[in-house]
Amino acid sequence: MAHRAASVSRSLHPRLGRLFNRESQRSFMVAFDRTLLEGPAPFGVDARATLAKIIEAGPEAVLIGPGLIKQAGDLFGFHGAPAIVARIDLPLVAEFRVGGSELYEAAVDPQLAAALGADAAVMCLIDGFDDPQNFARNLEAVRLAVESCHAIGLPLIVEAVLWGHRNSDQTDAAKLARICRIAAELGADLIKTQYPGSAEGMKQLTDGCPIPVMVLGGKATDAQAVKSFTEGAIAGGARGVIYGRNVWQREDVAGMAKTLRALVHG
Known about the structure:
Elements: H1 2-9, H2 14-17, E1 27-31, H3 35-38, H4 47-56, E2 61-64, H5 66-72, E3 83-87, E4 89-92, E5 103-106, H6 110-116, E6 120-126, H7 132-151, E7 156-161, H8 173-186, E8 190-193, H9 199-207, E9 213-216, H10 223-235, E10 240-243, H11 245-248, H12 253-265
Helix pairs in contact: 8-9, 9-10, 10-12
């Protein structure tokens, strides 16, 4: 596994490589972009204070919306600060559906994200929309973002997930492997996806995807469960985690971050 990780890292764009720890070749990222759709969420009402705690915890990167980059970008203004990853779309699915309907919208031009200071961009590719035209729009948005991001040297992370209404199981390993591979074939530089529930399922994803794969965390759950699926993800070949509520939606942000860093970098 160590040999494979090293060989993958040599193929990364320098900006994408900066999202990874030099020694472990893995990454612990924190996602604070949920509030872009949810608004002032518990533990995230004071966005600046929450971001300060996240940055202090020492992740390799932080995922936030473009407005927060503009409003609180100075918090990242020091040598050795986490990289900034910008959310550039609005995946209006699951609990964020509008009037009961699934929608998908591109939200921010990658050039603007880069101008604000982003080191990478992230957007979703969602399998299982009720309306296949939404999937077609999503594919087109990813295709256009790949062109725009690569034209300015901005890495694109695609969040390849099964959040469409037609998918009752969002952790189906075979379906996740399919949507991850599609995202890679469209030109993504890095994949963010759901943990499929086992190290074996994770290996099915990573074996079938020619670019690095990281796992998301979902809703905040107990620390032991987070530890368990983090260990399974890493054992299955994940190059790290991009966790949001399982880090910042807690009283002890620093303690949870320390635990996760140790699990990821090992």
